[in-house]
Amino acid sequence: MSNNKPEWLKPLIYAISFFVALFAIEATFSLEYITKWIWHIFLLSGVIILLRQKELRVLRLFILAFVPYLVAALLSDLIQLISKDYFIKWDNYIDSAKTLTLIWMAAILFSHNRQSKIAEKERIKRKLEDELNKVIAVRKDELEALVAERTAELLAQKEELENTLADLRNTQSQLIQSEKMASLGELTAGIAHEIQNPLNFVNNFSELNTELMAELKEEIDNGNFEEVKAIALDIINNEKKIMHHGKRADGIVKSMLNHSRSSSVEKEPTDINELADEYLRLTYHGIRAKDKSFNATIKTYFDESIGLVNVIPQDIGRVILNLLTNAFFAVKEKKNSLTYPIAEGEPVKENKDDYEPTVSISTRVIGAALGTKLGGNRVEIRVSDNGNGIPHHILKKIFQPFFTTKPTGHGTGLGLSLSYDIITKGHGGELKVETKEGKGCTFIIRLPKI
Amino acid sequence: MKILVVDDEKDVQFLFEQRFRKEIKSGEMEILFAFSGEEALAFMKKHEHEAVLILSDINMPGMSGLELLKHIKEKYEKPPPIVMMITAYGDDENYDYAMKLGADDFLTKPLDFTSLKEKLKTRIV
Predict the structure, then answer these.
(1) Tell me, which fold does domain A263-339+350-450 have in CATH?
(2) Does B18 sit within 8 Å of A208, measured CB to CB?
């Protein structure tokens, strides 16, 4: 036990000096019969002092190891002093007892030594552990600081990403709106034509009626009432025509406004055939106004039995417009890609003159979707063209946003993806495509009737 | 004189019939109607050389007025009928193309019936 306390040092030095002095006296003057008593007193009192020290509690066993021998030595000397005869008589026993105490002392010391070695090992281990813990603590602090730093960085990045996401969402909705506007732009020419026609009729018939009124007055003056009746009937019929064409123009403007409106979630019973026909005319005239030389055969097969279907009319109109625009674009592309026969007898894949660009739209009632327990018929709208079809490798991508085969600036790439969302998410229906390369393709919309 | 009016708008018939009521009544004019280019061609095949004057709209679904014009001018060589084009868009491109194909006149909607009447009368004479 190392003890650096200064109050221990002084008594220790005194004790050692006393030892040395006692040895010296003993050796020089042969005063063993006196000094042994001093040894006894000194050693026993030393042991008692040491045992009473609280700090040395751990060493108690070590100190106690000496006690039996010291006591035995003292008793042996005492017996010798009191009665020499008695001592001689019991000498063997006393010696054995002394030996036993020595063995006892050796055993205790040996065991103590072992224990203290283990304790020392333990101590070193604990010290190492402490040092390791200290290092770990320092490391932990460093790591925590690093983690805090990284967390702050990550938070900043997260915030940045959130901002970017918000920006993207914003841009997306702007793009959707601009897609609507772009398709409106495609419609403009068609709309102009569709409005111009009824307006012409309104102008023509009202002009006609003005003249008829003058004639009517004339005939009244002449008293020719047969003629008056005939003219009046004409006027009434013309007035009906004016009303009819006025309403037609009104309807076109309304559907145009509906088309550009940002969003509406109102579903209403809609005549799908009428809607399809209206958008077919708008699309066709729109394309014709842009490309005068373009022409296509249009086939319509409207199933009158489909009745009214609960849909958002402008949304379904937008889908039909998109599919028809694509169909017209496809037949136009094919026509442009074909060539006229060069020389007679030369084999030609397909003659430009023989190709008849055809776009068709049809409606029909079909049964409920497979796997649906509740019955309920569905309405199917098919938009077909005899263009070049969709190549197999891009077929999977056509409903993806921003995918387009048109040159930059000619398509937003949102048309079909928006259409897909409108049909599936907006109306619980399905939008499918069937295509054969070089032969054309058909888009199929299926909507639940309820 | 027989006039064939080609337009996909059916009300055109009522308009012409009333506008030319007097002429029709007096037998001065006979106006026939076709509502598509295809119908007009079919009619002309059936009644060859009956119509002396054709008034055709340009923007029609299916066969356009310009195609009809092309067909007529190519097929009916000896006295080709007079073809007047009518369009809602009076653009140069349509005009040039119609003239190249041999159109006899080019009118824009809304029709000015007074001038049309005069044009028809001078054409026939």
Answers:
(1) Heat Shock Protein 90 (3.30.565)
(2) yes
For chain A, what are the domain ranges?
Answer: 6-139, 263-339+350-450
pLDDT tier for residue A1 given thresholds of 50, 70 and 90: very low
| Interval A175-205: pLDDT, tens | 777 777 777 776 676 777 778 888 889 999 9
**Which residues of chain A lie closer than 8 angstroms to B11, CB-CB?**
201, 241, 244-245
ipTM over cut 0.95: no
Please give the angle made by the CA atoms of A408, A412 and A416, to the nearest 5 degrees: 130
Q: Measure the CA–CA gap between A109 and A65, rounded to whole angstroms.
A: 7
* Contacting residues of A for B113, CB less than 8 Å apart: 204
Nearest chain B alpha carbon to A202: B110
Output the six-digit token pair for A366. 């079909």
Phi, psi of A382 (to 5 degrees): -115, 130
Q: Which residue in the set A234, A289, A297 is minimally distant from B89, CB to CB?
A: A289
Alpha-carbon torsion (A196, A201, A202, A208), positive or negative: positive
CATH of the domain at B70: 3.40.50.2300
Tokens read off for A79: 């017996």
Q: Which residues are paired to A147 by β-bridges?
A: none
Can you tell me the distance from the alpha carbon of A10 to that of A187, in angstroms, rounded to the nearest whole number?
Answer: 113
Q: Which of A398, A426, A405, A397 is nearest to A318 (CA)?
A: A426
Task: Provide the strand spans (E) within A189-315.
Answer: 268-271, 297-301, 308-311
What is the radius of gyration, based on Cα positions, of chain B? 13
Alpha-carbon gap: B14 to the closest alpha carbon of chain A (Å):
9
Report the alpha-carbon distance of residue A363 to residue A444 in Å, rounded: 10
Q: How many domains does chain B have?
A: 1
Q: Which single residue is written with the structure tokens 């776009």?
A: A359
Least confident window among A204-213, A233-242, B81-90 = B81-90
A234 contacts B61? CB cut-off 8 A: no
Question: Shortest Cα distance from A205 to chain B (angstroms)?
Answer: 7
Range of the domain at B78: 2-124
